[in-house]
């Protein structure tokens, strides 16, 4: 077969038009890319209303109108030149970008692959001016203050790119998603999307509200009211302060309760200084906060906002500005994780009377009365656990005294009164024991069903508790409180070391992290320049695959903080211990024991889910019971 002889070509400069089209290929992937860039510019112009009009999913027409401060007449032509921008002027500005756009590439890139038209009017101007992107012709036009950008026949100059576009419906969905991401972070701005002359989406500006209230309203409008009712508020502020007095790092937003998790990760929104990003550090931090409470491969839902000094984050990483790089990624990871963990840790056992009056209550959609809770911005709280130590139950023949040792039954407890319950946290100003029995979130026990479930009555109706799952969480949280991160895990030497071919990164990680591996009960040493040997594994995992365990731990250590890996490994083992130590099904309980378990659930973090992420209790409201028996019809 004949081979092609390479043709030697001289080095030469590319023409400006080709340069612009190459740049357009990086910035503009599909119509949604154009929508994102134009809405970015509208927000930078301090617009209070942004309207997007589309035809054929944005392929035939994309028009973005705003009421911002506009572009002056003598700057309109300059706005279409490559790397022309009003947002940065020096390298120092680039290192601390505070605007959505800053490169000056978007308008020039779009103009090189589409037919573009600009109209703009500034304050004090007699009328607007219109610029034809093809000819450069400038002429008077009529419009109010602000800017309108029309983009017609996208990719007409590069037909090969147009062939890669999907159906109109698919492209429209991507355009709506691009605007939705902006809407979630700017509740002070109204957004409207029209397609083929029909209103597709509209989100009105939330004015006159506090920042938190406005964001909650916008989240409810964009993602549905269930997102807010089935989520908890997240707030974390670092103790270090900037020169202007603000926290050096602040994380806030809302994190969905475990029951609101979805099969897809389509409702995970993370923002850095108002910019939507897809960052593996933020995604891993948020996911790790759900490790103890999420079942299987379900995906959590959240909208988290990270605020930090712009000089500590590099947004000039990707042409689409959707990726960032943090100067201290570990600090950001810990802040997002701890903030989300603290929000999820508080038991959400109570159901407000309003929810009971309005309709069926979701057991995890409300929180304790405010007097019981003390939201903290510090790492997860520690409990004041009572003595004696925990006793594990291996079968159903144990005496009541053994059972009471697992959760101390307060003196004088009974069907109507339980006193001296441990507080929910070391900083709580009120304890559950100070509440009258009618105000106990999980109510008072009335019976046990099939030796599996506890039936309790509260002010909203019937509470059904899976006693094994609930006690499993209580034991697990006690074990975590009793063991420190510095405690090492017992290891067992292997009679014959397990060797495996390792990558250079795995070899380097094993050498650098020898002490961390020892804490985890692992001994991994070099066997040859390209081979590692596993010589010891944790005792509880002695029967597992040593090589697979070693590879997974080394991969975690290479990507994440060592303390995170240690804590995760310890928690997995404690979870197994708690599962075996929790009370088994078919164990007959007295009313006093059932009530003691309910009170401990109310005082235990994350008690709404067991260690495996399954729910521990469910609420059935009076309205739901009435509906079952058709009362009131």
What do you see in this structure?
It is a single chain. The model is unreliable at 350-433 (pLDDT under 50). A hairpin with a 5-residue loop joins β4 and β5. The chain is built from 20 helices and 22 strands. α2 (31-44) runs parallel beside α7 and α7 packs antiparallel against α8. The radius of gyration is 30 Å and the shape is globular. The strands form five sheets. Strands 5-4-3-6-2-1-7-8 form an eight-stranded mixed beta sheet. A five-stranded mixed beta sheet has the order 9-10-13-11-12, with helices on both faces. It has a four-stranded antiparallel beta sheet with strand order 16-17-18-22. The relative contact order is 0.09. With 633 residues, the chain is α+β, with helices and mostly antiparallel strands.
Tell me about the largest β-sheet. 8 strands, mixed
Structural class: alpha+beta
Radius of gyration: 30 Å
Instruction: Indicate the low-confidence ranges by residue numbers.
Output: 350-433
* Distance from first to last alpha carbon: 86 Å
Strand arrangement in the largest pleated sheet: 5-4-3-6-2-1-7-8
The dominant shape is globular
Mean pLDDT: 79
Number of helical elements: 20
- How much helix is in the residues? 25-40%
In terms of DSSP E residues, the strand content is 15-25%
> How many distinct beta strands?
22
């Amino acid at each position: 077969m004949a081979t092609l002889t390479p043709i030697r070509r001289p080095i030469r400069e590319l023409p400006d038009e080709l340069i612009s089209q190459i740049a357009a290929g990086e910035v503009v992937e599909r119509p949604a890319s154009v929508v994102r860039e134009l809405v970015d510019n509208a927000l930078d112009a301090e617009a209070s209303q942004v309207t997007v009009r589309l035809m054929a999913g944005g392929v035939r027409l994309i028009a973005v109108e705003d009421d911002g401060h506009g572009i002056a007449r003598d700057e309109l032509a300059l706005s279409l030149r490559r790397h022309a921008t009003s947002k940065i002027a020096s390298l120092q500005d680039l290192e601390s970008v505070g605007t959505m756009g800053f490169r000056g590439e978007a308008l020039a890139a779009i103009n090189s692959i589409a037919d573009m038209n600009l109209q703009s009017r500034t304050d004090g101007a007699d009328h607007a001016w219109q610029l034809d992107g093809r000819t450069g012709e400038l002429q008077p036009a009529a419009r109010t203050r602000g800017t309108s950008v029309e983009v017609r026949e996208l990719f007409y100059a590069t037909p090969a790119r147009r062939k890669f576009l999907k159906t109109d419906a698919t492209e429209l969905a991507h355009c709506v998603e691009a605007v939705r991401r902006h809407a979630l972070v700017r509740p002070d701005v109204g957004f409207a999307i029209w397609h083929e002359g029909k209103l597709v989406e509209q989100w009105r500006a939330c004015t006159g509200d506090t920042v938190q209230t406005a964001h909650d309203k916008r989240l409810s409008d964009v993602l549905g009211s269930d997102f807010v009712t089935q989520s908890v508020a997240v707030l974390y502020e670092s103790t270090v302060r900037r020169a202007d007095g603000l926290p050096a790092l602040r994380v806030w937003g809302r994190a969905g309760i475990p029951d609101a998790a979805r099969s897809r990760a389509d409702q995970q929104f993370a923002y850095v200084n108002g910019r939507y990003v897809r960052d593996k550090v933020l995604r891993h931090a948020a996911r790790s906060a759900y490790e103890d409470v999420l079942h299987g491969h379900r995906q959590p839902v959240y909208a988290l906002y990270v605020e930090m000094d712009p000089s500590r984050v590099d947004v000039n990483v990707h042409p689409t500005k959707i990726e960032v790089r943090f100067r201290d990624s570990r600090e950001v990871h810990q802040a997002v994780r701890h903030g989300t963990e603290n929000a999820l840790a508080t038991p959400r056992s109570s159901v407000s009377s309003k929810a009971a009056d309005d309709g069926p209550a979701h057991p995890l959609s409300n929180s304790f009365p405010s007097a019981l809770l003390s939201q903290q911005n510090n790492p997860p709280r520690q409990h004041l656990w009572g003595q004696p130590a925990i006793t594990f139950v291996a079968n159903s023949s144990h005496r009541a005294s053994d059972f009471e040792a697992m959760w101390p039954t307060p003196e004088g407890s009974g069907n109507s009164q339980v006193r001296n319950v441990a507080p929910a946290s070391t900083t709580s100003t009120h304890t559950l024991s100070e509440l009258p029995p009618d105000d106990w979130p999980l109510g008072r026990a009335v019976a046990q069903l099939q030796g599996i479930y506890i039936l309790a009555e509260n002010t909203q109706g019937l509470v059904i508790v899976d006693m094994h799952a609930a006690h499993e969480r209580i034991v697990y949280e006690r074990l975590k409180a009793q063991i420190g991160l510095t405690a090492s895990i017992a290891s067992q030497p292997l009679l014959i070391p397990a060797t495996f071919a390792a990558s250079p990164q795995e070899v380097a990680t094993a050498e650098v992290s020898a002490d961390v591996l020892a804490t985890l009960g692992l001994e991994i040493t070099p066997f040859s320049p390209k081979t590692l040997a596993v010589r010891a594994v944790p005792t509880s995992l002695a029967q597992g695959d040593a090589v697979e365990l070693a590879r997974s731990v080394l991969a975690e250590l290479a990507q994440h903080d060592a303390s995170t890996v240690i804590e995760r490994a310890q928690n997995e083992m404690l979870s197994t211990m708690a599962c075996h130590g929790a009370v088994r099904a078919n164990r007959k309980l007295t009313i006093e024991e059932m009530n003691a378990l309910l009170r401990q659930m109310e005082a235990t973090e994350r008690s709404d889910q067991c260690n495996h992420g399954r729910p521990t209790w469910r609420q059935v409201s009076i309205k739901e019971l009435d509906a079952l028996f058709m009362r009131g019809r």
